[in-house]
Amino acid sequence: MPSSKARHSDSIERRASPGGGGGGTMSTSRDYSVNLSVQQVLSLWVQGATLQHFAEMWYWVFLWCLFSSLFVHGAVGLLMLVMLQRHKRGRLITLVLVSVGFLASLSGGVITSAAVAGVYRVAGKDMAPLEALVLGVGQTSLSVVISFSRILATL
C-alpha cells in the first residue's frame, strides 16, 4: 500500500523554473479551464452547464454585445452608403460616423459587460449561455433605443 506522501505527490507536479535555477514551482493539477472560445460563444456550448468565472461571464456578454453591435452598425453603414451615394463626401461621412458609433458602443459594451458579470459574480450566481446572449444583445438594443429617443436631449 503506497504511503500518503506518495498518493499526494500524484496530484502535484514539479516543474523546473525557466531560469535554470535549482528551484521548482509547485502547481496543482486542478482544472480551471474557462470557456473563452469564440466558437463556443457562437454555438452557445459551454463546458459544464453554466459560466462560473468572472472572465467567462464578461467575455460571453461582451462578445454577444460586440456581434450584435457589428450587425447593427453594418446594416446602418450600408443604408448610409446607399442614401449618400450621390453626395460629394458620402463615403467618408459614412466611414467616420460608423467607426465612431461602433467604437463608442464597443467601449460602452466593455464597461457594461464587466458590470453585469461583476453583479453575477458578487451575487454568487452562475450564468447560462442563453443569459449571456440576452444580456449582450439587450445592451445593443438598449443603446439603439436610447440613441433614437429624445431622452439624452432632456439630460
Question: Overview of this structure, please?
Answer:
The model is unreliable at 4-24 and 26-32 (pLDDT under 50). A hairpin with a 7-residue loop joins strand 1 and strand 2 (24-28). This protein has helices spanning 4-10, 38-43, 54-83, 90-123, 129-148, 151-154, and strands at residues 12-16, 24-28. It has a two-stranded antiparallel sheet. The protein has one domain (38-154). It is mainly alpha-helical and 155 residues long.
Short description:
Keywords: Membrane, Transmembrane, Transmembrane helix. The protein has 155 residues and is mainly alpha-helical.
Work out the oligomeric state of the chains in this entry: single chain
- Unreliable residue stretches: 4-24, 26-32
Q: Could you describe the largest sheet, including whether it forms a barrel?
A: 2 strands, antiparallel
Shape: elongated
Cα-atom radius of gyration: 23 Å
Strand order of the largest sheet: 1-2
User: What is the total domain count?
Assistant: 1
Compute the number of helices.
Answer: 6
* Class per helix and strand makeup: mainly alpha
**First-to-last CA distance:** 75 Å
- Percent of residues in helical segments? 55-70%
Mean pLDDT: 79
Instruction: Give the percentage of residues in beta strands.
Output: 5-15%
Question: What order do the helices and strands follow?
Answer: HEEHHHHH
How many strand elements? 2
Itemize the secondary structure elements and their pairings:
Blueprint: H1 4-10, E1 12-16, E2 24-28, H2 38-43, H3 54-83, H4 90-123, H5 129-148, H6 151-154
Antiparallel strand pairs: 1-2
Helix pairs in contact: 3-4, 3-5, 4-5
